[in-house]
Predict the 3D structure of the following.
Amino acid sequence: MERAYHKWFSPMLGKEMEILVFGGRGVPVIFFPTRSARFYDFENWKVIEAMRPKIEAGELHVFCVDSIDNESFYSDGSPEDRILRHLDYENYILKEVIPFINKINPEKKLISAGCSLGGYHAVNIAFRHPSLFTKVVGMSARYDLTVSLPFFKDLFDGYFSDTIYYNMPTRFIGMLSDKRILRRLKKLEIILVIGQEDSFLENNKELSSALKNLKVAHDFFIWDEEAHRPRYWREMVKLYL
């Protein structure tokens, strides 16, 4: 399996960012890491190994990006600074990572995927920019970071703004009225996966219901148990990516 390491100074983030790339052809996948995790964790957790057959067959070309969650959602900055830093990260993906992918892979399709908070990143960017993606897979994720749950706090400490609203998929999808965006969403292959005992189950059900109300086709899979661990993600990627 081809493996390549890339690093460059990001103008969008003002720091060096790293990426691991697996494979050399196929549909590119931007794979977002879990909460505050690193670009190499999916490899260490054998999630990439589970994808080896599809990567070696030239079906998937996987780009494991790094996170800056400790500078955004989990920073000590103000709630507004947290969401603005997150937007810097979104711009890094849009203006640096995707052009980088396009330079080395001519494939017209693009998948956004992630686990846990990475699933939030994957779904949020795909729903906000549906014309750029053809498929999104969110695994074990929550899609409204303003909700307080056992062991998972409101990441904005009760603060709310339009900027936060338009970055919480459960909220903005439920009220979506832009027909242009809706048409593009309906072309997107959407897969949501969550465990029956996962704290984020109800939030996933809410997002699925919002999509149904908009008549946006999607697949929603509920696994047994919590299903919020690498051993589950190793099986999920085989089925859904």
